[in-house]
Amino acid sequence: MNLDHPVLSSLLPVVLLIFIGFISGRAKLVRPEAVRDLSNLVFLVLTQAMLFRTMSSVHLELLELRPVFQYFAVAAALFFAMLMVYGRDSRASVLALAGIFSNTLMIGVPLIGLAYGQEGLVLLFTLISLHALVLLTMATLVLELQMAHEQAAQSGEQRHMLATVLQAMRSAIFHPVPLPILAGLLYAQTGWGLHPVVDKPLQLLGSAFGPVALVLVGITLSQTAIGVRLKEALRLSLVKTVVHPLLMAGVGWALGMRGLHLSVMVVVAALPIGANVFLFSQRYRKEEDTVTAGVAVSTAMALVSVSLVMAVLPLLPTV
Fold it and tell me: Do 218 and 24 meet the contact criterion of CB atoms below 8 Å apart?
């Protein structure tokens, strides 16, 4: 086995981090009641630092946006299709997000860098700069709208649709994910940059996000009845690592995307479920076990799906 292969060298560290968390959970080094506190630490501290720092250097006028917009159009279409399939309720939003949200940082960056070089990374970083902003904000808005509707139905309160939408929008904006993204994006437009005294702590906190989140996935996995959730996790993983890249390749090709742009977008679509979805499910306490199992199963499946995608893409005609 060639451990220097881009797919293996990118995915195996993720598998190892989840495994370390699993062993830690089995050994009861982290108590079950502490998992929620660790999740809050990652979601409310590490994620905030990573998102704000990432967005604080983004200048939209310099980004190559056409392939990225096509990526988000495909992701949004798949999200709403999954929403219909899963029942259009708040739990469906979490499962639909799992079908479209890729692990772009921990796996995507090293994989694209090794496979496609600096030019590929520039395109990937353009996608990453908007990935959480677009997908997490979309999912948050839809989920908040669904939760507001469900709460109104339970209480018997007849709330005007506009009031429900405004409440959902307010909850979606003043939320731990969109807020640092929007704040970072606004700060970036000032051109001031981040002073090293501020930038270094944010960098250290952001760097800790991926490893700690994946270890936390492993800890949660050790406390989850995988057998009960395996069928659902397999279904989610198939959507994420097979349906998503096939749809991306088909739509991208039909819209004239070729070469490096098509390769990077399809490979990113084939990546496993990102840890942000796990934290999203923890935050809302929706489908936590299914998403946890889905992260692990999709990571294993991506060893095959990403390898196949990278083998087939060069065979496609360039015209």
Answer: yes
CA angle 117, 120, 126 (to 5 degrees): 140
Domains of the chain, start order: 6-311 (1.20.1530.20)
| Residue 318 structure tokens | 């360039």
Provide the residue-wise pLDDT of the chain in tens; the chain has 319 residues: 566 677 888 888 888 999 999 999 999 998 888 888 998 898 889 988 988 888 888 777 777 789 999 999 999 999 999 999 998 888 999 999 999 999 998 889 889 988 898 888 878 888 987 888 889 888 888 888 888 777 777 766 665 666 666 665 666 566 676 788 788 888 988 888 899 999 999 999 988 988 999 999 999 989 887 778 889 999 999 999 999 999 999 999 999 998 899 999 999 999 999 988 998 898 888 999 999 999 999 999 998 999 999 989 888 776 6
Q: Please state, in angstroms and rounded to a whole number, the distance separating the CA atoms of residues 127 and 122.
A: 9
Q: Can you give the chain as a three-state secondary structure string? A: CCCCCHHHHHHHHHHHHHHHHHHHHHCCCCCHHHHHHHHHHHHHHHHHHHHHHHHCCCCHHHCCCHHHHHHHHHHHHHHHHHHHHHCCCHHHHHHHHHCCCECHHHHHHHHHHHHHHHHHHHHHHHHHHHHHHHHHHHHHHHHHHHHHHHHHHHHCCCCCHHHHHHHHHHHHHCCCCHHHHHHHHHHHCCCCCCCHHHHHHHHHHHHHHHHHHHHHHHHHHHCCCHHHHHHHHHHHHHHHHHHHHHHHHHHHHHCCCCHHHHHHHHHHHHCCECHHHHHHHHHHCCCHHHHHHHHHHHHHHHHHHHHHHHHHHHHCCCC
pTM of the model: 0.84
User: Among all chains, which residue has been given the structure tokens 């889905």?
Assistant: 294
